[in-house]
Amino acid sequence: MIHVENLSKYFGPVLAVNNVSFQVENNEIVGLLGNNGAGKTTIMRILTTYLPASSGIARVAGFDVMTQSMEVRRRIGYLPESIPLYPEMRVEEYLAYRAKLKGVDRKQRTSRIGYCLERCKVEEVRRRLCGTLSKGYRQRVGLADAMISDPPLLILDEPTDGLDPGQKAETLGMLRELGRDHTIMLSSHMLSEVESLVQRVIIIRRGHLGLARKLSELESDDVIVVEVRGPSDQVAVALRNTEGVAQVTPKGGEDGLAFFEIRTHQRKDLREQISERLAKNGWPLRRLDLRRRSLQDRWNEINNWDEFAAEPTPRGTTAVTT
Amino acid sequence: MPSKAITQPPDTRPGSSWRNQPDTGPSVMRRDDPKIARGIGLAAAAAIVFGGMAMALQTSGRVTPLGTGWAVFLLTIGIAGLLFHAAFDSDVQIRRVYMAFAYLCMVLGGFLMVVPYNNQPGAWFGQGFLCLFLGLLFLLAFLRNEDDAWMRKYAENIIGCAGALMALIGLVGGNIRGEFMLPYGLLLALLGLGYCTAFIVVRGIGDDFAYRAGLGLGGLGVLAFLIALGRSALPPLFHKFGWLSSTPQEYLMPAGLLLMLLGAMYGLTSLALCSDNRLVVMTVRELAAQFYSPIAYIVLFAYVFAHWLAYWMYLGQIIDSPTPVPEPMVRGFILQWTAVLFTIFIVPVITMRLVSEEKRTATLEVLLTAPVEEGTVVVSKFLAAWLMFMFIWVPFLLFLLALRVLGGQPFDYRPLFSFFTGLGITAAGFVSMGVFFSSLTRNQIASGVLTFAGMLFLLLTFLFQGLFRESVWTSVFKHMSFIDVWFDTLDGKLVPTRLLFFATMAIFWLFASVKVIEARKWT
């Protein structure tokens, strides 16, 4: 659905986005993470065709955002961070106006507006002037506007910002349901929120791409670390024969010690079975540990990466994540 | 630190269903307090009783402390107060009483329109028109509060049927008999348009029947326009080519012109209500936004004041003049300079917020990420401001009408056609300049000041002509001076080269505005 290749954006001397590449598949929920000023909004504005890239290619649903901007705009729903609404219009008038602009068929318009009002929980304020709404309600009206034409791609800049905890949970739940048949790209500062929702994360730091991977791939990085006193080749065979073990990687050893990293099928925690197998063979166990890196760890790692500041050359995803 | 995403099964995640909490609304909602509305309604009823009694006593030839003027004033205030009460008191008994009153007004109005008096059919037409107009207003106020579906549908259908009937009688009758057009056909067609529009708006364009009614309204308008155009233009042409031996009777004035105007109004109303064309949708929103803000009313009031001033000054000149005032009479209005001076100020006021406001509030971002071209955005804003500018000249026509009615003397109205053509083209130049300056900045004041400077320059081109005697600058300034164009058109002259200057100016500024908005995409 989204294909970004070597994307860069300069604002005069400021390099807001530096050689960023990533892909998002259909019906995937992707979280765009980064500190304030990292370049998240700029990337979103480029994808929504509002701003051009200085260099690089960005495609949405196979259409180039620069040269086929109208085709792209027909396929996206965008919620900007500041949620601009016309203050003099009533909520349902505004949605009707937006539905007309986005080409929603006249016969379906009323039901579509009703659906979005209900789904975004703004039915109670449908007759209110947009200018009198609170931040949370503006946010939800903006979300209803993004959804009004049922576009295949939703680009949401901090969609839960300003919502109370209950509304936040509801919105996330709604996005999760929408994500079954829509592609959603959302930006956020809240890692826990994103972690519970998205299938793919993209972390941006100072315009550079820090990470762009599926969460499932990150999760598959979990390894069991074993340090055992015994013959390395025999221990390796015993470990491989343990049920559920997918891969055993020897990591060397000295003085009769052997180190291994073990990956298991379906990320099963096999520490007990492994210790049992090793004890049965009479090999003393020195260390048995599950090494798991959370998104927070990755985030901290990327944000502590001093090279970003010093060295502006582009970095691939693998260089940072491994 | 273990991650929740990895360990927690999907079903127990927070917000796993978006329906898990009821929507409680932003605040506690309460019904409108009808106390104020009832107070106003009571005062309004008293005003109607006093005004009505004074009017009735005067009609029977008695002298009352309240003069006719006061009686009319009290009646008007009273009806306005009752309408307010009808709109804001949703009590079921009260709203149904107003419903009954509305139906009564409509039946009475229909009866008064057709009943003959002293062997004169239509003698009470004016009163009937007023009753039907009030009937529509009260029925709309009733519909604002009514929640019974059957009652609503019944009232909506009555509005629709009455509207269709009046529109047909007005337009068809006006076509059959030219003398019926003024005033009966015109008033009926206008009222019919009001009723039909109310029906479509209340039903909502999503309703198939209302949509078809809207299309029908447009079709009727186009048909009326074409027939009136044909009847006005073809017989004189046939006569000129010798295909028609007898001299045809003039149809254009007033019946043909009025029918064409009505047809255009019907067509435009239908377009505004039914069209999904993005340019139309955005122009209608922009125009509505002008009326939601106080700007439209301030501007309208200012122009009414300007024309009123010109009217009294000109009237003084006519009365004091020892010799008859030469034609074209209408030129005298513009020569009072009030309209010219007000235009310099009003163009910036109308145009200053158009694009700059969208830039400031970032609504331009959501607008331009929807499938809308930059050109459409600019042209819709230009059209809305241009229509607004042309609309505020309506009081000018009303004062001319007053001059004709109160003066009792006919005058040459034909320069008005050329004047409004010239005004429309020069206004396109002004407004497009305003749109351009508005697109340059987020600051409304800055754009307003720049547009004012531009308008002042165009005014000075007229005033400076005298400074350059017979030099090339005289002719340059003469081309740029809109006042010269206005004077020419008031003399009945449409000079294409001068008009072309303003038309080109409009195209240039609009093109430049589109480029300014597109400039964000230049890398």
Q: What's this model, at a glance?
A:
The complex is a heterodimer of chains A (322) and B (523). With 322 residues, chain A is an alpha/beta fold.
What does this structure look like?
The complex is a heterodimer of chains A (322) and B (523). Chain A folds into two domains: 2-218, 3-Layer(aba) Sandwich (Rossmann fold), CATH 3.40.50; 222-291, Alpha-Beta Plaits, CATH 3.30.70.100. Mean pLDDT of chain A is 83; it is low at 308-322. Helix content of chain A is 36%, strand content 28%. Chain A contains 13 helices and 14 strands. A six-stranded mixed β-sheet of chain A has the order 6-7-8-3-9-10, sandwiched between helices. In chain A, strands 2-1-4-5 form a four-stranded antiparallel β-sheet. Chain B has a domain at 277-523. Residues 1-16 of chain B have low confidence and may be disordered. At the A-B interface, α2, α3, α4, α6 and α7 of A face α1, α10 and α15 of B.
How confident is the prediction overall: mean pLDDT of chain A?
83
* Helical residue percent band of chain B: over 70%
Q: Give the tally of structural domains of chain A.
A: 2
The backbone outline of chain B, from C-alpha atoms, is globular
CATH superfamily of the largest domain in chain A, called what?
A: P-loop containing nucleotide triphosphate hydrolases
Poorly predicted regions of chain A are 308-322
CATH class membership of the largest domain in chain A: Alpha Beta
Instruction: Please mark out the parts of chain B with pLDDT under 50 across 5 or more consecutive residues, or reply none.
Output: 1-16
